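Thread: quick sanity check before group meeting

JM: Hey all, I'm pulling together slides for Thursday and realized we never actually wrote out the predicted structure for the chain we discussed last week. Dropping the sequence here so it's in one place. If anyone has concerns about the input, flag it before I start.
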Amino acid sequence: MINTIKQAIENSFSYADYRKKVTGLIAEGKSTGHTQTADLLKYSELNETRMNRLDKTIQLSDEVIKKLKNFDTNYIWLVLSEGWCGDAAQIVPVIHKMAEVSDKIELKIALRDDNDALMQHFLTNGGKAIPKLIVLDATTLEVVADWGPRPAGAKQLILDYKATHGIVDETAKIELQKWYLHDKGISIQNEIVEMHEQVLS
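JM (edit): ok, ran it. Output follows.
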């Protein structure tokens, strides 16, 4: 898997370049990914607005900042994402803000469809659910931990909705976005920091 990881890192973007890539494609009437549809373009445009807002409004808790600054190992946070993914639009800006706090974290974002070999190692219930955060030891590129595609509360919301209605439809997606709005990125921050603490303990 090490070669697959190296290839994904070589193919990856900084957060700023990822944003530019998505924005540039939208200007051409396209989304990221190997499939192009009107719906995916619409979702990409919606997500662009969400990410612009989150970049300005996301705040990290003092406790999370303190823990991030206490990291004593260098990590690469490699995130599998796509511009059309609603969960990614809510989560990746939070991960970016977290990575900015610590000089021990280098954030890399790789497009899922361009890195299928890596995605196959991190399936969720057999599916290519994103975003997926893969924590790597920066020196050895060993996989230390992984997180995603959703925080626990968001995951439970979708499970409950599917149990009641049998499908995940537009209404479910709207409810999910409301959940993220209300949560303000707190669950994402706490779960990722807790995951790191478990690895280090």
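AS: nice. Residues 2-149 form a domain with the Glutaredoxin fold (CATH 3.40.30.10). DSSP finds nine helices and four strands in the chain.
JM: adding both to the slides.
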